């Protein structure tokens, strides 16, 4: 849907400081002070990720770099380019914008560029002001279908018009303040990266026995050897088999290239530990989605995160399918088809998800009570475990996959049960400290983002830098703009600042 309201009225009734305008300033429509260039409808058959001319698509606006190349002739005069320093605007979806810095590139359809006439208006000031107005338009555009932004709407936005020298002073002040915030935010993101690296180092130490070396030395006399534990697991598995087809003993694991484990640990296969499954999920056409039973999809979980059950999509499934594909507390769910970076993503389901279904690009399995599910989760979500899980994946165009046999053949280091519990406890303690640090980083990043908004609000309210009576006034500047472009000025009414 497209925007259909009166932008002047919306701005006039807005209490958001991002839409403020100092009483000594004027307002001017973007079309009077900037040139807008629309993208071209390139044929998608020419898109690829290696050869040709870089092209900016809607999804590239927020990233700031082109993610696609166009392989084909680019000599049609209607084909347009964007250069560094111009403002790129995505005209579908969330109406994002940014000053482009990704190099010369073609402009695809539904992306436009803006270039201010800097004799009248600072390009950087326009880039600072524009996001607040695009969000206002976005918030008042119907989302029944994909939101669309028109060039006419962009040209009609009445942005603040301070004196030109004041625009430049505002930009300079904001850049100085934002540079300080940038440094602080980068430091916080570096802490986040280090915490992520630290987490993986903890998991590696956990599933290789390093984390519990001291505990193991003190408790060796209490430990059941992993070999004996595995035999008990296999015996229980034989007696209570609910896996695929008729019971078969798990295939022997080739340990030739596997690392040496601590005393009391053994390598086994994931298949030897599975008591039910693995089972691929349910496929239903999109026409079945909208009501019915909650269904778990691959974007509904990440490591240590699950979308709340109440927010899962619903699907109209038959009762037999609900019984066959219904999830249970303690099930493991594995992403079996995706890009390599996300393939093998695994989660352990809490009781909240009992009865939800799972889609066909996943598989699920469960294990018995003689192995700690939390320990197995830690292993499968570690870099080491996921690498073992997907080591035999099959590659296709833009995606890879693993099958049930790959899952069953995954090598798993099996410690004695008491040591599994100690590993889980120690990782939990480390995770608590990590989570606290991450929350601190997130709080500080949110505070920094709020401070940026506060700085912008002060800027547009005329409070960030002092006014200079020697500057050319905003009204004189507006007169020059209208004199320079009378046709546009006649079409657009002057809007006095409030």
Key terms:
3 domains; about 500 residues; 16 helices; Adenine-n6-DNA-methyltransferase TaqI, Chain A, domain 2; 5-stranded mixed sheet; disordered C terminus; alpha+beta
Descriptive overview:
This protein is an alpha+beta fold. It is built from 16 helices and 26 strands. The relative contact order is 0.15. Helix 6 runs antiparallel to helix 14 and helix 11 crosses helix 12. The strands form eight sheets. The chain has a five-stranded mixed β-sheet. The protein starts with 6 loop residues before the first helix and ends with a strand. The chain folds into three domains: 171 residues, DNA methylase specificity domains (Adenine-n6-DNA-methyltransferase TaqI, Chain A, domain 2, Alpha-Beta Complex), CATH 3.90.220; 113 residues; 187 residues, Adenine-n6-DNA-methyltransferase TaqI, Chain A, domain 2, CATH 3.90.220.20. Pfam families: Methylase_S. This is Restriction endonuclease subunit S. InterPro entries: Restrct_endonuc_typeI_TRD, Restrct_endonuc_typeI_TRD_sf, Type-I_RE_S_subunit.
Spell out the blueprint of helices and strands.
Blueprint: H1 7-13, E1 26-29, H2 30-33, E2 34-38, E3 47-48, E4 53-56, H3 58-63, E5 68-70, E6 81-82, E7 87-90, E8 97-99, E9 105-107, E10 111-116, H4 123-139, H5 151-156, E11 158-161, H6 164-207, H7 213-218, H8 226-239, E12 266-269, H9 270-273, E13 274-280, E14 289-296, E15 301-302, E16 305-306, E17 313-315, H10 319-325, E18 332-335, E19 337-338, E20 346-348, E21 357-358, E22 362-367, H11 373-381, H12 383-389, E23 394-396, E24 399-401, H13 404-408, E25 411-414, H14 417-460, H15 474-484, H16 486-491, E26 495-496
Parallel strand pairs: 4-9, 14-21
Antiparallel strand pairs: 1-11, 1-26, 2-10, 3-5, 4-5, 6-9, 7-8, 7-10, 12-25, 13-22, 14-17, 15-16, 18-20, 18-22, 19-24, 23-24
Helix pairs in contact: 6-11, 6-14, 11-12
């Amino acid at each position: 849907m497209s925007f259909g309201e009166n932008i002047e009225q919306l701005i006039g009734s807005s209490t958001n400081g991002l839409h403020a305008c100092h009483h000594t300033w004027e307002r001017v429509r973007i079309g009077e002070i900037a040139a807008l260039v629309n993208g071209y409808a390139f044929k998608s058959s020419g898109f690829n990720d290696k050869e040709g001319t870089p092209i900016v698509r809607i999804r590239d606006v927020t990233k700031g770099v082109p993610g696609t190349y166009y392989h084909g002739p680019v000599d049609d005069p209607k084909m347009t380019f964007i250069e560094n320093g111009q403002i790129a605007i995505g005209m579908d979806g969330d109406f994002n914008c940014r000053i482009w810095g990704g190099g010369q590139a073609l402009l695809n359809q539904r992306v436009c560029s803006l270039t201010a006439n800097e004799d009248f208006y600072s390009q950087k000031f326009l880039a600072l002001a524009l996001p607040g107005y695009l969000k206002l338009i976005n918030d008042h555009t119907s989302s029944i279908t994909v939101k669309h932004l028109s060039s006419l709407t962009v040209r009609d936005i009445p942005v603040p018009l301070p004196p030109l020298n004041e625009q430049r002073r505002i930009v300079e002040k904001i850049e100085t303040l934002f540079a300080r915030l940038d440094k602080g935010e980068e430091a916080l993101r570096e802490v986040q990266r280090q915490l992520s690296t630290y987490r993986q180092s903890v998991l590696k130490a956990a599933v290789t026995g390093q984390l519990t070396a001291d505990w193991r030395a003190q408790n060796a006399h209490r430990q059941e050897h992993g070999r004996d534990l595995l035999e008990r697991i296999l015996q229980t598995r034989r007696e209570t088999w609910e896996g695929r087809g008729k019971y078969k003993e798990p295939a022997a694991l080739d340990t030739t290239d596997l690392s040496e484990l601590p005393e009391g640990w053994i390598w086994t296969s994931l298949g030897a530990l599975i008591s039910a499954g693995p089972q691929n999920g349910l496929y239903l056409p999109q026409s079945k989605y909208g009501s019915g039973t909650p269904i778990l999809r691959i974007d509904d979980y990440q490591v240590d995160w699950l979308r709340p059950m109440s927010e899962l999509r619903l699907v109209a499934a038959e009762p037999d399918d609900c019984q066959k594909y219904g999830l249970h507390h303690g099930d493991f769910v594995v992403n079996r088809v995706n890009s390599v970076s996300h393939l093998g993503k695994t989660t352990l389901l809490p009781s909240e998800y009992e009865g939800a279904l799972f889609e066909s690009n996943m598989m699920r399995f469960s294990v018995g009570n003689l192995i700690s599910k939390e320990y197995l989760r830690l292993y499968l979500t570690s870099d080491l475990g996921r690498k073992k899980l997907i080591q035999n994946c099959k590659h296709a165009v833009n995606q890879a996959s693993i099958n049930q046999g790959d899952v069953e053949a995954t090598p798993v280091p099996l410690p004695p049960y008491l040591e599994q519990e100690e590993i889980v406890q120690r990782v939990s303690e480390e995770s608590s400290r990590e989570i606290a640090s991450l929350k601190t980083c997130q709080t500080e990043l949110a505070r920094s983002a709020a401070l940026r908004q506060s700085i912008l609000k002060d800027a547009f309210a005329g409070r960030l830098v002092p006014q200079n009576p020697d500057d050319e006034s905003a009204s004189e500047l507006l007169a020059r703009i209208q004199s320079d472009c009378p046709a546009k000025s006649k079409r657009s009414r002057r809007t006095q600042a409030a």
